[in-house]
Specification:
By secondary structure, the protein is an alpha+beta fold. The protein folds into three domains: about 70 residues, no CATH class; about 120 residues, Band 7 domain (Tetrahydropterin Synthase, Chain A, 2-Layer Sandwich); about 40 residues, no CATH class. The protein is built from ten helices and eleven strands. Strands 6, 7, 8 and 9 form a four-stranded antiparallel beta sheet that branches. The longest helix is centred in the last third of the chain and has 70 residues. HflC and HflK could encode or regulate a protease. One of its GO terms (biological process) is proteolysis. It is found in: Membrane.
């Protein structure tokens, strides 16, 4: 913006006009220069006339009343902003992004009375610029206080193991829901989009002992997994062998039953023939039995009361049968 005094001096040097006309020209040029403004692409403009809200304008070029009658406040409604707790990222632009004492923010007490260092991020977006600017004093600081209070409440209901290991997702979801409710109740004009836990560690003096406990738990889980693997290999194999033995036993049972039934049927048939002709059947059984027993004997001896000496009977081998006439 050009200085009015400079414009006045230039005009008096160039044009031989009266001071009133020159002053009026300067005021017109200055007012025209102050009547236009531009809102960035990610923001909206809140127009105040004599300090009172009158309008909300989108991004782009707009006009206003000059000389301080209208003032415009730029609000980044389309930009995702974040609050960092327990740590600080260099180069931040949001004045509310970093707390006054990050070390104190991240120090918390868990439900099992252990200490934990919790770092987290809250991402939010301004959705109602009027409420954000006029309904709450310091809305960014208020949102920080709400987020810290909710996180301490949720962490205080859980053990240190849950916070560091298995309970991170549940903590993020609980803090997000609770922070949204409080931001809406207090009419901050913001929408909380995400809560993300960063580093969660025990205090520095007890970190070595805590790491030892974690390693022991990991070794325990590893041994359990190995045992489960061996169990999963041994049990199916044992079940398969048991099924195989059961099937073999059932097969042997059926075999013995069939053989016994066959022998019983054969005996019944022989008995029927014996009843019809006992002598013939007895002789036939005797001869069949000798035909089965004698070929298995190594040496056969015939004993007869009429014979005074024992005469060996040679086995009827294949060679003797071939030599016989």
């Amino acid at each position: 913006m050009n200085d009015p005094s400079t414009l006045f001096e230039r005009l008096t040097a160039v044009l031989p006009l009266s001071p009133k006309i020159l002053l009026l020209a300067v005021l017109l040029l200055t007012g025209a220069n102050m009547s236009f403004y531009t809102i960035p692409a990610e923001s909206e403009g809140i127009v105040l006339r004599f300090g009172r809200y009158i309008d909300k304008v989108p991004s782009g070029l707009h006009a206003k009343l000059p000389f301080g009658v209208d003032n415009v406040i730029e609000v980044p409604t389309q930009r995702q902003q974040k609050l960092e707790f327990g740590f600080a990222t260099p180069g931040y632009t949001n004045p509310d992004q970093i707390g006054s004492d990050p070390a104190l923010e991240k120090s918390m007490v868990t439900g099992d009375l252990n200490s934990a260092l919790v770092e987290w991020i809250v991402q939010y977006r301004i959705t109602d610029p009027e409420k954000y600017l006029f309904d709450v004093r310091d809305p960014g600081i208020t949102l920080r206080d709400i987020s810290e209070a909710v996180m301490r409440e949720v962490v205080g209901d859980r053990t240190v193991d849950e916070i560091i290991t298995i309970g991170r997702q549940e903590i993020e979801d609980s803090v997000l829901i609770r922070t949204r409710e409080l931001a809406q109740r207090y009419q901050l004009g913001v929408t909380v989009n995400q809560v993300q836990l960063k580093n969660v560690n025990p205090p520095v003096p007890v970190q070595p002992s805590f790491n030892e406990v974690n390693r022991a738990q990991q070794d325990r889980e590893n041994v359990i997994n190995i045992a489960n693997g061996e169990y999963n290999k041994a049990v199916p194999r044992a079940r398969g062998e048991a099924d195989q033995n059961i099937r073999a036993a059932e097969g042997y049972r059926f075999k013995r039953i069939n053989e016994a039934e066959g022998d019983a049927y054969a005996f019944t048939q022989v008995l029927e023939q014996y009843v019809k002709a006992p002598d013939v059947t007895r002789a036939r059984i005797y001869l069949e039995t000798l035909g089965d027993v004698l070929p298995q004997a190594r040496q056969q001896i015939i004993v007869d009361d009429s014979v005074q000496q024992i005469m060996p009977m040679l086995p009827m081998t294949s060679k003797l049968l071939e030599a016989a006439p």
